[in-house]
Structure formats: C-alpha cells, structure tokens
## 1
Amino acid sequence: MTDCDLCGKGIPAVIPVRTYPPLLRFAYPEGVWKGLCETCLDSAQKTYLEVNRNHTSCRRGKCSLCGSKTGVFSVELQIPDFSKGIVRKDVDVCYRCLKLVDEAYVRFKKAQIDEEGRIHGHEHVHPHH
Ligand SMILES: [Zn+2]
Ligand SMILES: [Zn+2]
C-alpha cells in the first residue's frame, strides 16, 4: 500500500507524477516522483484544463506537490472520510506541477486504453484449432 501525496488515501498503486521541488533541486536535478490516486489526478487535471481555458489568474501560495512558493491554483480534493463520507478540501498546486499532472494523466489514460485493448484483443485472437 502507498499513500496518495495529495489526499493521503492508502491505495495499492499510485500514479507517478514527476515534480521539481526547489529545495531538492541540487540533490535531485532529475526531479522527485510523487504519487497520486486516480481521484486526485482527475481533479488536478481538471484544474489544469480550466486554468488554460479560462486563463485563471493564480494566487501566491505554496504548492502542495513540490513545495514551491509561487503562483498556485486550487485543486478540489475528495477525501474519503469514515464518518462523513467524502470530504472536499482545496489544496494549492503550482502551474508547473499541474502541467506535469496533465502529462501523467495522459500517460495513465493511454496505458489504461492499451491495457483494455490488450485484454480485448486477446479475446478475439482465439486460435481456431
Ligand atoms: Zn488522492
Ligand atoms: Zn508545484
């Protein structure tokens, strides 16, 4: 089990998102991998699309993913809560991370489609003998 780096939910596998924390720039010039659950990935990608579509202006804040103090945007998380069901919470994510989330999202969706295609394809290639 791993925990999602945004909502903290424990899931079997998180979706890797590369971030570039400014404090670790020298130790990890290649970036640091964070892991997001599918729900958070979806929400962050939605924010990314909205920001691009509406030219939303950012606020000053601290990015929840890379820790940069920079311009950030709100991403609405849906955090599962045992007593209250789903709790909504806003976190701040910088544009750079949102863009990396979008890349991770595209990669993840493509892998899903490939996987479906593979399973599906397999059903049809039954050898006739
Ligand atoms: Zn999450
Ligand atoms: Zn960031």
## 2
Amino acid sequence: MKLLVCGGAGFIGSNFIHYFLSAHPDDQLVNFDKLTYAGNLENLKEVADNSRYAFVQGDITDLEHLKKVITEHHITHLINFAAETHVDRSIHGGAKEFVLTNTLGVQMLLDAVRATGVEKFVNVSTDEVYGALTLDSLEKFNEHTPIMPNMPYAAAKAGGDLMCNAYYKCHKVPVIVTHCSNNYGPYQFPEKVIPFFVFKLLKGEKVPVYGDGLNVRDWIHAKDHSRALDLLLQHGLPGEVYNIGVDNERSNMEITKMILEIMGFGEDRIEYVTDRPGHDRRYAIDASKILKLGWKIEYTKEKFRQGLTETIEWYKNNEVWVKNLLQKIENEMNSFQKDLNRSQATMPPENK
Ligand SMILES: NC(=O)c1ccc[n+]([C@@H]2O[C@H](COP(=O)([O-])OP(=O)(O)OC[C@H]3O[C@@H](n4cnc5c(N)ncnc54)[C@H](O)[C@@H]3O)[C@@H](O)[C@H]2O)c1
C-alpha cells in the first residue's frame, strides 16, 4: 500500500502514522498537511527520517497539488484527517475556514481520487454530525441515524460526508466514511479538554467546566481509532459508513474528577463556567458494524482509567514537546481570545 495521509500532523493523524508505520513494515506513506496552528511536525520527529515516510506541506482544497502528489508518489490509498476541528472556534471565531476545509476540501479529495484512480479513500468524520442524544435514553447513534448537526464544525463535517455519499452514488468513487467518538491519547493540541486540563493543573491553575458538567461523550483511545481505520483501509466496503466507539460513556464531570484524582488534586480546583451555545448533551455510538468486521478494542471501558493515566503521564514526561508548544499555544489562545473579545481568560474545555 502507498498511502496518502491528509492532516497527518494533527492529533489523531500523527497517532495513526506512528501506528501504521510500525504495523505495516512493507508499506509507505506520504503525510500531506497544511500545518495550521493544530499541525505539529514535532509529533512525528521519530519517523521524520524513516525511508517509508515523506512529508509534503499542502492544502486539501488545492486539487492540482493533490493530483500531483498522488501521481508522483504512486498513491494507492488515501485517508483524510485534515480538518478544522475546534468546535468553539467554529461558533465564536467564524465558520468559513471550517466549510472550506471540512466540506470543500473533502470534495477536492474526492475529485483527486476520481481523477487519479486511487483504490480506496477513507474519510475520517465525527459522531457530532448526528446531533445530540438525551441523557435519559439508551439510544445510540448507528449508521442509519439521520445527520442533524447542531454546530458549524459538525455541519461542515456533514457537508464533506454527504459529498462522499454523492460521489460514491454518482461516480463510484471508492470512499468510506467513519463517524468516531471523542478521542484521547498523546499529541493532542491543548485546546481540547484532556491536555488542556493537564496543562492547567501543571501550571497550578483551576480547570473550567462548562455548565453542570453532565454532558456525556464516548471516549476512545486514539490507538484504537487508528486500528479501526487501518482495518477499514484493508477490508472496509466502499460506499459504506462505519461508526467507531468503545461504549465508554463518561460525563465531563467524571472525566474532570478522574484527571484531578490521577494527578493528586482536589475538587477545589474545579471552576464552573457558562455553558457553550448548542452544547450537545450526549453522544453514544453503536459500533456493532465495525466490530463484526473484526475490529478489536484494546482500551475498553474497563481499561479507560489506565488509558487516561498513561495519557497524563505522556504529557508529564514529554516536557520538550510541551515546552515547544507552549509559546505557540499562548499566541494562538491570545489571538483567539482577542477574536472572541472575551473578558474570560480561559479557553473552553470541550473536546473536539
Ligand atoms: N479529536 C477527536 O476527538 C475526533 C473525534 C472524531 C473525529 N475526529 C476527526 O478526526 C480528524 C482529525 O482530528 P484531530 O483531532 O486529529 O484534528 P487536529 O485539529 O489535531 O488536526 C488537524 C490536522 O489537519 C491539518 N489541516 C487543517 N486544514 C487543512 C487543510 N486545508 N489541508 C491540509 N491539512 C489541513 C492541520 O494542520 C492538522 O495537522 C478530523 O477530521 C476530526 O473531525 C476527531
């Protein structure tokens, strides 16, 4: 396989690249990434000199560049992680970049796949396109749940997903769409809840929790997500949608208390902040379709505490990675805060 990984310098993309290179010693990959504020080549410094890895800086909305890279590197498969991913930015900072990358960018990828004859394209999407479930139901999102996004990030992702469906139906482009739940693990940009809280606590600050903290998400380790995507690259059926989740529903408050406890802090470190507009109450995934395909989960619900502890340890032990990011984050957060014209000096703590 000669794989083009779009958006490989971000959180899940870099976890996937590390996993893929070690799981497939005979395969090669090219990482195509625009390097927005969320892209970080430090995530990949251990593989930078690997002869089976190459990096190309590029934008997925640039069709000609995509076609050139696909042709020059004899790409057979493509996986797309490239996206604008921060929900709060899409609400408060303007949604244009979200539509450009998450919808138009996916359409350009579909055009590139169609023009070059790539054998399979996996478009990584999110459970947020389905909208919200209620706290008191046992309902879960399955692949037939209607798409009903409640915030601009998710609406732009849904636009890309619908394009995939249309290109499969009209042009037989061999595309698969995935809807995964909240990820955790190493290399996550600290505007998202777990690294955000860890960094705040390490700096001696309080952690801000939205509203009543009862919003529920299904947390999956990025390694399990990577294994699921790998399985789909090998055995997934073009034209199909696959939901990915590990049945690990946790409220934001539960996550917060677990982080505090693992790091040895008390609940006095919690600070309640005003809820975000359109904050979906609960997401839950029915993953039976991909489980039937043979996906094996390592970090099950029972192993969540272990996965979270390892993740926190990773941030604590990778001081250089953290240090190098701090200035970048400070600049990013300052400019984002300015855009928001907010008096509050905290970034909102929602994942995704
Ligand atoms: N983080 C989660 O919990 C989660 C859960 C489910 C699905 N997803 C999806 O997984 C994918 C990856 O998420 P993430 O959290 O790793 O994101 P991220 O924000 O950490 O990384 C996104 C990457 O895409 C790159 N990028 C952005 N715009 C680009 C463009 N126009 N062209 C090329 N590269 C571009 C960035 O430089 C960055 O490296 C996204 O599509 C997201 O919707 C994320």
